[in-house]
Sequence to fold (140 residues):
Amino acid sequence: MIYEVDLPPNTVEWYYAVTTFPQKHNNSVNVSLLEQITKLINPSGVLGIAVDLITTPTGANDCDVYLLDPANQNIFFRKWDVSKHIPFQSIIAGSRENFRNGAVQVKNPTQGTYFMGFRNPSETEGIGIVFEAVAIVKVE
Fold:
């Protein structure tokens, strides 16, 4: 699965949060990332967000999350061959493997369109994924 992230102009940094749940679970899950980040920004406008202060519901299954540029998004989307060799390159600072839940701060890249590629590493269990992203934008 791939999700497109269009970063708004003047993005200083951005955050995303992920939590996972069993595929059969049909309960609605909400991370409320925007509300949490809004409460963590210093009123003077100085960024003082400690990513470990952002809470997410406990995840139930591992998933791999890859931050991808447009060229590697196309490669990721074509999937991988039978041997599970994945011939794409992700942006390491914004990628996580065997991730059940949590928030990630991304300081670079901050301009353009990027993609979040989600992969279920389990061959026997389906998973559901909740994903939210928030950009911090400098207002001139």
